[in-house]
């Protein structure tokens, strides 16, 4: 009997190599799901706040003539395309541009006066939501109103056509037939050093034609980091293009990205020399990470197992519902 | 476990061991290979990581430099005025930047508007500041520069990345023989200082691939080879990691190179050697293991076998001890018990500890000490085997007999050393032995006191032993018989008989008895010899002298024979006499019957009546005598039939009612019986007894008295009952003395009284004997002058009423007269006696039947064939051919099967009647033939014959 036991043990020893079970990563996915849900809940809260202004805006402009009759034409002094207000000078004013591409400047001037009621709303909105970087309205008549004021004279080329920008056309009749809220998937890095900005826009219709697009830019770095810090593990938040919107240093460093400033991605993003393109998954030094990006973003896979990268075991990807973003967990091999 | 199985186990283990060795070697190689691969991989990984780390670090430094240079430029621009007033400060600040990134800045041009300053740091660490007359360099000619424009001042940094990198990467470790390169602007620049550089062939595939990857911004690791002056062709691994270096237009990457042998070096030396040593140890271990296993198996086998034997022996010994009721003990030379088996507790009732303790040196245990001293005494006598028995009383009071054997062991010097032995409870055997002894003693005493001569033989019949009380009774000297065969000592001519009995006693194991006789000088001597087997080997004979018994028996037999002959003669005489008397009586009584039917005067009638009564009485007397003689000779039989006792008792009453009426006696019958009950019993005998008792009662009761007959039933279970009859009269009574003799034959109480009463004196004797025959007892109670009571009980069996045969109708005299006319039967009478023939013809005439007569059986046979008859009345005793023979012949005739043949005979015995029926007769009439009876029979057969004809 003892002898057969030896044989059995030997057999088991040989056989056990191939008996390891495959992992389904259920626990990891449920955590990813939870994270994404929390972030989307946060997004939903932001949406609701914008939605209320949008309704207010639409209500008001439906009585456009009466607005016009009561309008304060003197609030803004518009020289050429730009209003005169400068950043920090008057918290009750926005930066207004009547772009050269406007079809009717006279009409546009009237529109500015008629929509001055927005300033107070915008101001309230910014005060109540600390994540808000700026709130704005770009109209079909090429009137741009941005609160709070910024250095629009130096930044904006007055010859642009605002309707050609995604924060406008993403909400138009064609792209947004539902006429509801739209998240702009292409986040951008704030040149003023506030990190990643996410835009949410809402079309404003007047007499069933698109009057303007109301938008708000949120600074999401802090929010996202706060969430990420609550979870153990290496996470990346990327947009549809593969840009890393947020991520833990460990995750970014292991996927052969350029070095981080002080090993913190947030700081890197806010640094002077930061280029978004450097921190794109498709720009990783690792061929395999680029393959992973391809699998996740293009082929919509959810699990990617690393073969070449010895320090990496697997990556899991979980998409957002409301915005074309992805939460990726990098699991190192040890 | 059997040895083939063991052997197969051994081979299996050897095979497993060998397999293990192979497997371990295989595993070792796999393990080594895995380690090798892992090592190579991990070293490659290490190389990659080092490259990545260095590259990323360098990139960080470059980024930092960009920031710092920016700050520097801002600073200079801000403090331009101060600088103009303090040129040293500019130099200091600038030098700080140079020092912060050693080797990074090759030259720095600073255009301060009025002049262009050129800063540089020599390899000897001399910081040079010159005015560049040529102004700012033409940027188109430069590579790796940063231009910064600030208000009032412009900067152009010419960077020497290779130089900076040399310093920077020196902190990154690389395996021996490795080299670090910077790839910049499509050129590999060695970063190792003071070393012969490896010259890679730039056109080899790996390098081209690496370049392509770098251009795509991808890191990579590649196998490469190069020519070494000393070693010749060297294989190596190249790892590269690109980084951003925006000052340059071309791609930038750090490239680390390691020769492959260095990657793998040490793996063999460290692991392979260890593994080899381990494998050798393992092989050695397994070899030792197998050999030790083999010897262990062998030893195991042997031990197992021994163990089996021992345990089997032990079990057997235990069983034996249990069966024997014994225990084993060991003792030393002092008689102290050193060990004792556990059975001791069961046998002696003392625990092992107690037992051992009681044999200790200073023990005061009396029995133990006694045993000890006995053993010691015997040992002192030089016995080495001690066997003793003694009685032992167990703690529970039970007395047992113990037998002890001790084997004593002496040492070399002949000194008593130790011993061991067995104690056995032999109570049973002892008791049995005692019993046998007693039994033997008893047997001896018995034999001693048996008066018979006893011989004991072996199976061949040779005398083994003998016993004689009185040796004189033996014809030969007893001693001479010893050893002689039985055939030699038995009387001559009787050997066969005696030896036959001897052999039969052996075969059957039963006692065989033979009688022999010797003709001795004292006359004929008779012996009864009884042979029986004592056991399988011995036979005993008891010879008893029965000479005197023989003589006595002889006399007795002769006397008995004489008595028997006398008795038979008496019976025969009685039977003959009865027959002879009956024949004339037939004529007499028949004529009287006929005479009664003629016209007679008053006196004539009285005379006829007297003659008739006398005749009847005579007939009764003859019948009684016959009955009694039959009872005496044991010829009477019990004929059981089903009857209704109540009805029968009334019939008897009816029969006696005439006499009762005549004497004015009140005859009462009291029956306490369920009307529906019928029983099986000898009805006729019961009726005969009853009739006798009732008749006597009426006879001896004076006129005006009363006779009461009672019948009671007593249930005794399972359908058996006692019918209890009682006949009580108010007669003259009988004295006690007379009661005793009352049932003696021919006894009559006081002849003076009995004169008035006719009778043979046989009636009561017959009744008594019949009652006894039927299983009952006649009880008589009487007081003189007051009356008598006769009672008897007879056991009967209950029967079903359906089985009761219906009785015949009572025939009247008138019926008889009309018979002839009514039943015209054709009758043939076969009768040789003239007188009887006349009588019968007269009877037929009176009855009015048609009849023929013949005088012999032969004639009857002939007549029957000539003429049709309904009935033949056939006398049994006839000359020529008697009635029985004639009947047989008639029955042989074809068409005479239905002919009614009624036998006529003076023989009244039942066997005669049976004989007649057997011969083929339908019925049987005893002589004297009475007219009424004849008429009754003829009527019965007429109804039968005619009834058949009519139907």
Short descriptors:
heterodimer, A: 334 residues, alpha+beta, Beta-Lactamase, 11 helices, elongated, B: 951 residues, seven-stranded mixed sheet, five-stranded antiparallel sheet
Describe this structure in words.
The complex is a heterodimer of chains A (334) and B (951). With 334 residues, chain A is of the alpha+beta class. Chain A folds into two domains: 150 residues, Beta-Lactamase (2-Layer Sandwich); 170 residues, 2-Layer Sandwich (Beta-Lactamase). In chain A, 36% of the residues lie in helices and 25% in strands. Chain A contains eleven helices and 13 strands. In chain A, strands 3-5-4-8-7-6 form a six-stranded antiparallel β-sheet. Chain A has a five-stranded antiparallel β-sheet with strand order 10-9-13-12-11, sandwiched between helices. In chain A, strand 7 and strand 8 form a beta hairpin. The radius of gyration of chain A is 26 Å and the shape is elongated. The two termini of chain A are 41 Å apart. In chain B, strands 21, 22, 23, 24, 25, 26 and 27 form a seven-stranded mixed β-sheet that branches. The longest helix of chain B has 76 residues. With 951 residues, chain B is α+β, with helices and mostly antiparallel strands. In chain B, helix 15 packs antiparallel against helix 16 and helix 22 packs across helix 23. Chain B is elongated. Chains A and B meet through helix 1 of A and helix 1 and strand 9 of B.
Describe the structure concisely:
Chain A has 334 residues and is an alpha+beta fold.
What is the oligomer described by this structure?
heterodimer
Q: How would the global form of chain B be characterised?
A: elongated
| Rg measurement of chain A, Å | 26 Å
Classification by helices and strands of chain A: alpha+beta
Question: What fraction strand of chain B?
Answer: 15-25%
> What percent of the residues of chain B sit in helical stretches (DSSP H or I)?
40-55%
CATH topology of the largest domain in chain A: Beta-Lactamase
Distance between the termini of chain B: 101 Å
Largest sheet of chain A: 6 strands, antiparallel
CATH C-level of the largest domain in chain A = Alpha Beta
- Biggest sheet record of chain B: 7 strands, mixed
């Amino acid at each position: 009997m003892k002898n057969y036991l030896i044989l059995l043990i030997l057999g088991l020893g040989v056989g056990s190599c191939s008996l390891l079970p495959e992992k389904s990563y259920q626990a990891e996915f449920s955590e990813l799901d939870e994270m994404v849900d929390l972030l989307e809940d946060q997004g939903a809260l932001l949406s609701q706040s914008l939605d209320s202004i949008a309704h207010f805006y639409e209500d008001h402009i439906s009585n456009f003539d009466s607005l016009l009759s009561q309008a304060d034409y003197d609030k803004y002094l518009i020289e050429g395309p730009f209003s005169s207000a400068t950043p920090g000078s008057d918290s009750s004013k926005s930066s207004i541009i009547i772009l050269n591409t406007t079809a009717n400047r006279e009409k546009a001037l009237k529109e500015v006066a008629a929509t001055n009621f927005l300033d107070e709303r915008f101001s309230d909105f910014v005060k109540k939501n600390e994540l808000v970087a700026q709130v704005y309205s770009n109209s079909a008549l090429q009137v741009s109103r941005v609160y709070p004021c910024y250095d629009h004279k130096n930044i904006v080329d007055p010859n642009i056509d605002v309707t050609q920008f995604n924060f406008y056309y993403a909400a138009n009749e064609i792209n947004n037939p539902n006429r509801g809220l739209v998240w702009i998937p292409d986040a951008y890095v704030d040149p003023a050093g506030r990190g990643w900005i996410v835009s949410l826009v809402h079309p404003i219709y007047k007499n069933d034609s698109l009057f303007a697009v109301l938008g708000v830019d949120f600074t999401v770095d802090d929010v996202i980091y706060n969430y990420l810090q609550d979870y153990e593990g290496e996470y990346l938040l990327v947009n549809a293009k593969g840009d890393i919107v947020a991520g833990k240093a460990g995750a970014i460093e292991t996927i052969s990205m350029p070095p981080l400033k002080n090993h913190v991605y947030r700081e890197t993003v806010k640094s002077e020399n930061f280029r978004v393109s450097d921190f794109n998954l498709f720009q990783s030094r690792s061929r395999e990470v680029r393959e992973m990006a391809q699998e996740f973003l293009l082929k919509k896979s959810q699990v990617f197992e690393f073969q070449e990268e010895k320090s990496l075991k697997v990556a899991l990807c979980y998409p957002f519902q409301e915005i074309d973003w992805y939460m990726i967990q990098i699991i190192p091999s040890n | 476990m059997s040895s083939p199985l063991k052997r197969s186990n051994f081979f299996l283990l050897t095979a497993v061991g060998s397999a293990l060795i192979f497997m371990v070697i295989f595993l070792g190689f796999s393990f080594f290979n895995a380690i090798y691969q892992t090592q190579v991989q991990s070293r490659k990984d290490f190389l990659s990581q080092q490259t990545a780390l260095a590259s990323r670090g360098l990139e960080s430094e470059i980024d930092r430099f960009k920031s710092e240079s920016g700050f520097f430029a801002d600073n200079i621009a801000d403090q331009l005025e101060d600088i103009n007033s303090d040129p040293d400060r500019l130099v200091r600040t600038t030098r700080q930047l140079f020092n912060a990134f050693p080797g990074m800045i090759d030259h720095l041009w600073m255009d301060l508007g009025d002049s262009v300053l050129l800063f540089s740091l020599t390899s000897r660490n001399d910081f040079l500041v010159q005015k560049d007359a040529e102004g700012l360099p033409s940027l188109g000619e430069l590579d790796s520069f940063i231009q910064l424009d600030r208000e009032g001042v412009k900067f152009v940094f010419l960077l020497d990345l290779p130089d900076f990198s040399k310093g920077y990467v020196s902190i990154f470790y690389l395996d021996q023989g490795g080299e670090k390169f910077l790839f910049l602007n499509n050129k590999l620049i060695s970063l190792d200082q003071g070393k012969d550089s490896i010259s890679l062939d730039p056109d080899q595939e790996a390098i081209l691939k690496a370049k392509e990857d770098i251009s795509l911004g991808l890191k990579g690791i590649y196998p490469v080879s190069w020519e070494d002056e000393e070693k010749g062709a060297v294989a190596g691994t190249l790892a590269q990691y690109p980084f951003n270096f925006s000052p340059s237009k071309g791609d930038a990457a750090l490239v680390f190179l390691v020769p492959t042998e260095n990657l793998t070096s040490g793996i063999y030396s460290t692991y392979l050697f260890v593994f080899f040593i381990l494998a050798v140890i393992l092989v050695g271990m397994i070899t030792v293991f197998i050999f030790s296993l083999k010897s262990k198996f062998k030893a195991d086998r042997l031990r197992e076998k021994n163990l089996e034997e021992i345990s089997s022996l032990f079990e057997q010994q235990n069983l034996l001890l249990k069966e024997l009721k014994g225990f084993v003990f060991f003792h030393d030379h002092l008689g102290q018990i050193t060990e004792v088996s556990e059975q001791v507790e069961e046998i002696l009732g003392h625990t092992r500890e107690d037992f051992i303790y009681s044999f200790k040196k200073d023990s005061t245990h009396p029995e133990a000490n006694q045993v000890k001293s006995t053993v010691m005494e015997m040992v002192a006598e030089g016995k080495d085997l001690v066997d003793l028995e003694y009685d032992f009383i167990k703690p529970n009071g039970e007395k047992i007999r113990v037998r002890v054997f001790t084997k004593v062991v002496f040492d070399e010097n002949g000194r008593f050393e130790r011993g061991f032995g067995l104690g056995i409870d032999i109570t049973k055997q002892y008791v049995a032995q005692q019993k046998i002894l007693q039994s033997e003693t008893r047997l001896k005493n018995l034999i001693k006191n048996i008066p018979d001569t006893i011989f004991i033989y072996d199976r061949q019949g040779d005398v083994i032993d003998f016993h004689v009380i009185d040796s004189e009774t033996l014809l030969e000297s007893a001693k001479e018989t010893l050893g002689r065969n039985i055939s030699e000592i038995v009387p001559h001519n009787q050997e066969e008989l005696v030896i036959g009995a001897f052999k039969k006693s052996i075969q059957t194991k039963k006692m065989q008895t033979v009688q022999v006789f010797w003709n001795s000088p004292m006359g004929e001597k008779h012996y009864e010899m009884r042979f029986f087997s004592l056991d399988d080997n011995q036979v005993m004979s008891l010879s008893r002298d029965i000479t005197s018994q023989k003589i006595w028996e002889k006399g007795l037999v002769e006397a008995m024979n004489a008595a028997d002959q006398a008795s038979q003669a008496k019976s025969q005489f009685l039977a003959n006499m009865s027959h002879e008397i009956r024949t004339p009586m037939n004529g007499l009584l028949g004529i009287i019957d006929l005479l009664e039917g003629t016209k007679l005067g008053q006196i004539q009638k009285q005379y006829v009546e007297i003659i008739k009564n006398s005749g009847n009485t005579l007939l009764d007397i003859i019948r009684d005598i016959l009955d009694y003689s039959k009872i005496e000779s044991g010829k009477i039989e019990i004929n059981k039939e089903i009857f209704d006792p109540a009805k029968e008792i009334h019939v008897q009453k009816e029969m006696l009612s005439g006499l009762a009426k005549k004497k004015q006696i009140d005859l009462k019958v009291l029956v306490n019986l369920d009307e529906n009950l019928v029983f099986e019993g000898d009805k006729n005998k019961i009726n005969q007894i009853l009739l006798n008792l009732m008749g006597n009662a009426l006879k001896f009761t004076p006129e005006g008295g009363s006779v009461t007959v009672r019948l009671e039933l007593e249930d005794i279970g399972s359908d058996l009952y006692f019918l209890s009859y009682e006949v009580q009269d108010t007669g003259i009574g009988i004295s006690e003395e007379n009661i005793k003799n009352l049932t003696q034959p021919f006894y009559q109480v006081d002849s003076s009284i009995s004169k008035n009463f006719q009778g043979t004196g046989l009636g009561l004797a017959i009744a008594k004997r019949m009652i006894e025959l039927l299983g009952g007892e006649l009880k008589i109670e009487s007081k003189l002058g007051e009356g008598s009571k006769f009672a008897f009980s007879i056991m009967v069996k209950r029967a079903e009423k359906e089985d009761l045969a219906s009785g015949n109708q009572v025939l009247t005299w008138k019926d008889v007269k009309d018979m002839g006319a009514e039943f015209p039967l054709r009758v043939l009478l076969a009768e040789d006696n003239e007188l009887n023939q006349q009588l019968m013809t007269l009877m037929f005439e009176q009855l009015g039947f048609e009849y023929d007569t013949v005088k012999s059986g032969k004639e009857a046979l002939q007549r029957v064939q000539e003429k049709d008859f309904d009935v033949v009345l056939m006398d049994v005793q006839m000359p020529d051919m008697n009635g029985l023979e004639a009947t047989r012949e008639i029955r042989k005739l074809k068409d005479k099967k239905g002919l009614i043949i009624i036998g006529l005979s003076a023989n009244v015995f039942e066997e005669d009647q049976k004989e007649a029926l057997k011969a083929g007769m339908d019925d049987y009439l005893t002589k004297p033939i009475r007219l009424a009876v004849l008429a009754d029979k003829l009527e019965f057969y007429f109804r039968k014959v005619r009834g058949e004809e009519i139907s």
